[in-house]
Design goal:
It is a single chain. With about 350 residues, the chain is an alpha/beta fold. About 50% of the residues lie in helices and about 10% in strands. The chain has one domain: TIM Barrel (Alpha-Beta Barrel), CATH 3.20.20.140. The protein has a five-stranded parallel sheet with strand order 4-5-6-7-8. The protein has a three-stranded parallel sheet with strand order 1-2-3. Strand 7, helix 14 and strand 8 form a beta-alpha-beta unit. Helix 1 runs antiparallel to helix 4, helix 4 runs parallel beside helix 5 and helix 5 runs parallel beside helix 6. The longest helix has 17 residues.
Length: about 350
Amino acid sequence: MPPSNHPIVTLEEAFLSPHVRSFYASSNFPDPNAEDGLTGYATASLMEFGPQRLSSMDSNGISLQIVSHVPNPLPLDASTARAVNDDVAAHIKNMPEARFAAFATLPMKYPEDAVAELRRCVKELGFVGALIDSNCGGRFYDDSFFWSVFDTAVDLDVPIYIHPCPNEAVKKVLYSGNYSEHIATSMSEYAWGWHNEAAVSFLRLFASGLFDRLPTLKLLLGHCGEMIPFQMERTANVIERQWPHIGGKHERSFRTVWDENVWITTSGFFETGNMPCVLGQCKLNRILFSVDYPFGKNEAGVAFLQKLKEEGLVDEEGLEMIAWRNAEKLLGVKAKKR
């Protein structure tokens, strides 16, 4: 049951495009979402964009779902990204009422194409931002090669969501060991590694000076901030004390950037034991609700929302901010109570 008499917006909710599966097949690259793979249990739900998804939203009082494509360890080309976005736009348009919005899928390997696609998705298709993988085929975004995409996001006043993505190079060095390759893959991704890497991807952006160059850039991080709230004190203190002496002279502090440029979502984290730390290290108006559907269950997500208030972690106003008000303000969407 819904936790209260208000709307609910979720914004790290996944889908899988047949265009991407065809791209993998034509590239002779193993399909990371194959039905017999680690996430094969979710493949059918990822590809379904109709009654099943809507029924789960309705039964849990979810008003609006912001959808985005699952990670792509093989960077997409421009034509595939465009086809994905066109399909999502058509799905949204064909819905009898406004139940979905979308983050753009971008061909980050080709920044000029990514810039053009981001502009098209926001200006023509009405998308609310973009979701990008934490690495682009193993390459990170502190490389100025990618910065035109962030420039464009600032120009359009939309956020960029950095989502974890597999990284084979990192997996071989840190996670392959005296156990099966399936366990190594799981450890390098969902169980631990790619959350750490998403945090590192953000830290690299900070270290590069991108936030001094773009002080109004808006970034989203999922999974309760990808470990950063739990490391905040040490990370911020080391950067403040040590980096000025080793070439890291930043106009804006790490904590300032965190407070002013970053929003986090709860995607897939439904234990309230995490939340005192998250609430202590993140401003309340920077925390947004997410389920990570279909990997996370809507039922578990709304039960988590209810527990936040029952356990006294937030009051009714705080619950509303997390459940929908913060999303409305950041993304410019409107949600109705279901």
